[in-house]
Amino acid sequence: MDAAIRNIRRRKIKISTSRILFAFLFCGIPFLLYLLFCVYPIFQSVLDSFTNWRGFVRKDFIGFENYQEVIMDPVFWKAFANDFAITAIKEVLIIVLTVLFAVSLTRFRLKTGEVITYKFIFYIPNMLSVVIIGSLWRFIFMSGDSGLLNSFRGLFNQEPVDWITKFPLWCIGFVASWCGVGLFMITMISAINQIPLDLYEAAEIDGASSWQQLIHITMPAVWLQVTFMVVSILYQSLGGNFAIVNVFTPNGGVDNNSMVMGLYVYIYGTSGSRVAFSYSAAIVMLTLTAIISLGIKSLMNLFGRRYYE
After folding, report:
1. Which of 74-78, 158-162, 192-196, 208-212 reaches the highest mean pLDDT?
2. Which residue, among 184, 193, 179, 72, has the nearest Cα to 127 in the 3D structure?
C-alpha cells in the first residue's frame, strides 16, 4: 500500500515538473522575449522622450519640451491631417469593395472553382511586399510620358499629369486600399457563410430585393466584422501609412503635402540629432491613434446596438 502511494506521488511530481518545464519553454521564454524586445523599448522610449538625447551624447532631462515642440509644430498636424485623409479613403474603398466582393462570391451562384480563383486573385496584393507594390504603382502614376497612366492618356491627346505631386493622398489611398481588400474579404466571406440561408429564402418569398436583403439581413449579421474592419483599418493606417508613403514620397512630398506621422517620426529618428524628439512624436502618434480607435469603436458599437439589435 505504501509503495503504491509513493508511486502515485512520484508520478504527480513528474507530471508537475513536466508541466512547469512545458510552461517555461512555451510561455515563459516567449514572454521574456516579449518583455525584452517590445515592452522594454517602449518603456525606455517614454523615459528618453523627456530628455535631449541625440543618440550618442549623454542624456539631460528637459521635461515636456519635446512634447510641447511636437504639439506646436504645424508640420506634425499636417501629417496627422494627411494620415486621416488617407485613412478615410481606405475606410470607404476597402469596406465598399470588401462587402461587394464578399456578397458577390457568396450570394451569386458561382461555381466552386470560380470562387477559389477569385479569392486567390483578390488576395494576391496581401502576399506582396509594400516595396514591390509601391514600385509597381509608381511606374503607373509616374510623371511625364513614361508613366503608364499618362501614356494611356496620350492616346487621346491628353496632357500628362504629375499624379503623385498633385494628388498624392488619392494615389496613396487608392494603392493602400488595393492592398488591403483581400484579407478583409476573406473575413467577410466567412461571416456571411454563417448566416442561415432560411433568412434569405424567406425574404425572397416576401418579395425583398437583393439590396433590401443586404441592408436588413447581411449587414446586421456581419456588423461585428464591419466594426473589426473599421477599427483595424484605422489603427493600422494611422500608424502604418509610413510604409507606402515612404515608397511614393520619401521626403513628404511638395510642401509636406504627403507627410504622415510615421514618416515624420522616421525622418527625425534617423537624422541623428533629434532621437528623443522622434520618441516624443511617436508617443503622441500612439496616443492619438489609441484615442481615435477607441472612440470609433465605441461609436460603431453604439450604432450597432441602436439599429441592429
Report:
1. 74-78
2. 179
Nearest to 224 by CA among 293, 289, 309: 309
Find the Cα–Cα–Cα–Cα dihedral 55, 56, 60, 65, rounded to 10°: -30
34, 44, 262, 265, 269 from 39: Cα distances, Å: 7, 9, 20, 19, 19
Rounded mean pLDDT of 115-126?
84
pLDDT tens per residue, range 210-269: 888 888 888 888 888 888 899 889 988 887 888 888 888 888 888 888 899 999 998 888
Q: Map out the domains of the chain with their CATH numbers.
A: 65-307 (1.10.3720.10)
Q: Is 255 left (phi over 0), alpha (psi -120 to 50) or beta?
A: left
Q: How many CB atoms lie within 10 A of CB 184?
A: 23
Q: What is the CA radius of gyration of the chain?
A: 26
- Cell representation of residue 7: 508511486
pLDDT per residue as tens digits for the range 10-49? 555 555 677 777 777 788 888 899 999 988 988 888 888 8
- Would you state the cell numbers that stand for residue 89, as one nine-digit string? 479613403
- In the chain, alpha helices (H): 2-23, 29-34, 40-48, 65-72, 74-107, 112-127, 130-141, 148-154, 163-166, 168-193, 197-205, 210-213, 219-221, 223-240, 242-248, 261-270, 275-307
- What pLDDT is recorded for position 225? 87
Task: Give tens-digit pLDDT for 171-185.
Answer: 999 998 888 888 888
Residue 247 to residue 164: CA distance in whole angstroms:
11
Helix (H, G, I), strand (E, B) or coil at 51: strand
Residue 258 pairs with which residues in a beta bridge?
A: none
- Left if phi > 0, otherwise alpha if psi is -120 to 50, otherwise beta: which for 256? left
d(CA 211, CA 52) in angstroms, rounded, equals: 59
